[in-house]
Each structure stands twice: as C-alpha cells, then as structure tokens.
Design a protein that fits this description.
Elements lengths: L3 H4 L10 E5 L15 E3 L5 E5 H9 L3 H7 L9 H8 L9 H14 L8 H20 L10 H8 L5 H14 L12 H14 L2
Parallel strand pairs: 1-3
Antiparallel strand pairs: 2-3
Protein name: Nucleotidyltransferase
InterPro entries: RlaP (IPR018775)
Pfam family, one: RlaP
C-alpha cells in the first residue's frame, strides 16, 4: 500500500491506494502478444506492475517504486514477493539522488504561487524528505510521522507560499551528495532474482 495511509498522512477523506507486483506465466512471453507490463484494478485505486517492469523502474531509481519496496503497510505477499523485498537494497544507487529531486522539482514547477494546490505542495515536500533520508541512511522515508503536523499544515494552506518554498530550498540544499548510496545498483543480483522467478513460473 502507498499514498497517505502508508505515509502516515491520512485523513478521513483519504483513499486506499494499493500497489502490487505480479509475475506473468513464463510461457506467455513465448507468444507474439506479450503479457501486459501493468494492470489496473480490480479494486479502486489499485495498480500492479509485472515483475520485470517493476525491477526495471526500481533500477532507474523511480521514487514511487522504491517507496513501494519500503512501504510499512503490506497486505499480501507471495514467496516471490518476499524474495523481492529481501533484495530491495540491490536496486539502490546514487541516481536516486537525482530522481527524487527531479520528481519533486517537476511537481514544484507545476504549482501556481498565486493559487497553490496545497496537497501537491505537501507531497512535493514529502518526496524531498523521503529522498534526503534515502541519501543519508540508505532507505527512503515512507512514514513521515515526525513531520506529519507540519506537512498537514501545508496541505491545509496554513503555511504561506514563502514558508513552503523556504522549506523546499532547505531540503534541496541538503542534497549535496548521494551519501550512503552506492554508485550503481546490483544488477547481477536483480537479474538472478528475475531468472529464478521466471523459472519458477514455467
């Protein structure tokens, strides 16, 4: 599970955002029509990636994918899912230093200072907090309990635009180097996992 309930930022109106990973039968790749790389549903706000697509995005340090691997709310896992979680550090690399800041910057540029979308502003700050924790400690910060009150104040529009941009600038400035992250992900370990998973799905 991801979203506000995983971050510790849920309110009474919050949806339940589910994200998952599935393994397509190996024989389905032998056909001309390949299996989907992702599917939506069957529940509302549910989205799942085929395992190879998921691993590819994780190796690229996609923030959403990396936070899925560290989500504290897990509803169901299979043996393949347990193994995926056990190798989650293999996906980490210094490129996350760029992707987290880049994603947050893209959100910031879409905000209108005259009429800010405060929920989006909150998640922009939350993403920077998560990425900074990842750079310093080697794993993203998913639950933001220590920052909950201030983040929710942003969402309610109780902080001024200047205060939000100042908080953003302080966080961006702190991204001076990748810190605890390795230069490259452990692609060999990820490929071994994929091969074993495909063999098990024959």
């Amino acid at each position: 599970m991801v979203g506000s309930r995983a971050y510790g930022l849920e309110t009474e109106e919050s949806d339940v955002d589910r994200r998952g990973v599935f393994v397509a039968p190996t024989r389905s790749f032998w056909r001309l029509a390949k299996p989907p790389t992702h599917v939506e549903g069957p529940l509302p706000e549910q989205f799942s990636w085929e395992v190879e697509r998921f691993c590819g995005l994780a190796l690229e340090a996609n923030p959403t994918i990396l936070e899925c691997l560290w989500s504290p709310v897990v509803e169901h896992t299979t043996p393949a899912g347990e193994e995926l979680l056990s190798i989650r550090h293999a996906f980490l690399s210094g490129r996350a230093h760029r992707t987290f800041v880049g994603y947050a910057d893209a959100q910031f540029r879409r905000l209108n200072p005259e009429r800010p979308r405060w929920k989006q502003a909150m998640h922009m700050i939350r993403l920077l907090l998560s990425g900074l924790h990842l750079a310093r400690h080697g794993e993203p910060l998913v639950r933001v309990d220590a920052h909950r009150d201030r983040l929710l104040a942003v969402r309610r529009g109780e902080l001024s635009w200047d205060e939000v941009t100042r908080w953003r600038s302080e966080l961006v400035t702190s991204f001076d180097d990748p810190g605890a992250l390795p230069a490259e992900p452990d692609r060999r370990r990820v490929e071994e996992y994929l091969i074993n998973t495909r063999e098990a799905a024959l």
